Amino acid sequence: MFKIIAVGKIKETFFSEAILEYTKRLSGYTKLSIIQVPDERSDEKTKEKEADSILKQINDTDYVITLEIKGEKLSSEGFAEMIEQLEVSGRSNITFIIGGSLGLSERVSARADRKISFSDMTFPHQLMRVILLEQIYRAVKIIRHEPYHK
């Protein structure tokens, strides 16, 4: 099972449609939940308020992967291998965390079992959900040795 915890709502229709499409594609393979936590006002306490909301959504048994610029970079095959190894080892509750515009609190980063990065570039958190879902879908297809239709 995959859980994605993300800060903020999806505002753009085209992102919502892409998220819906990948959610539908994944439904035949795995359970998926997407949890949106409030995007707080930008002030000195923002990341800590967001951290409180994020950490409330994590279970003790979740294997937590944060998306961070300084995280480990993986190829699509490496990402699939990571997921497959987690599932084989009994860590089937995989939780991904996408921070808001200010990034993640140290408390959230410290809770991570693994930190990964999709690029040295910064992406809008709405777009990052689409990219993450696409990579999860691609990983599932790689694990099952099924063709990936672009």
Compact overview of the structure:
By secondary structure, the chain is of the alpha/beta class.
Task: Offer a few descriptive terms.
single chain, 5-stranded parallel beta sheet, globular
Description:
By secondary structure, the chain is an alpha/beta fold. The chain has one domain: SPOUT methyltransferase, trefoil knot domain (Alpha/beta knot). The chain contains 5 helices and 5 strands; from the N terminus they run E-H-E-H-E-H-E-H-E-H. The protein has helices at residues 13-26, 46-55, 76-88, 106-111, 125-143; strands at residues 2-7, 32-37, 63-73, 94-98, 114-117. It has a 5-stranded parallel β-sheet with strand order 2-1-4-3-5. Strand 3 (63-73), helix 3 (76-88) and strand 4 (94-98) form a beta-alpha-beta unit. Helix 1 runs parallel beside helix 5 (125-143). The protein is globular, with a radius of gyration of 15 Å. The two termini are 24 Å apart.
How many individual β-strands?
5
* Tally of helical runs: 5
CATH homology-level superfamily: SPOUT methyltransferase, trefoil knot domain
Total domain units: 1
Mean of residue pLDDT values: 93
What is the CATH level 1 assignment?
Alpha Beta
Query: Going across the major beta sheet, what is the strand order?
Result: 2-1-4-3-5
**What structural category do the secondary elements indicate?**
alpha/beta
CATH architecture call: 3-Layer(aba) Sandwich
Order of helices and strands: EHEHEHEHEH
**Percentage of β-strand residues:** 15-25%
Distance between the termini: 24 Å
For the biggest sheet, the summary is: 5 strands, parallel
CATH fold category name: Alpha/beta knot
Shape: globular
| Rg, Cα atoms, Å | 15 Å
> In terms of per-residue confidence, which ranges show pLDDT below 50 for 5 or more consecutive residues?
none
Task: Bin the helical content.
Answer: 40-55%
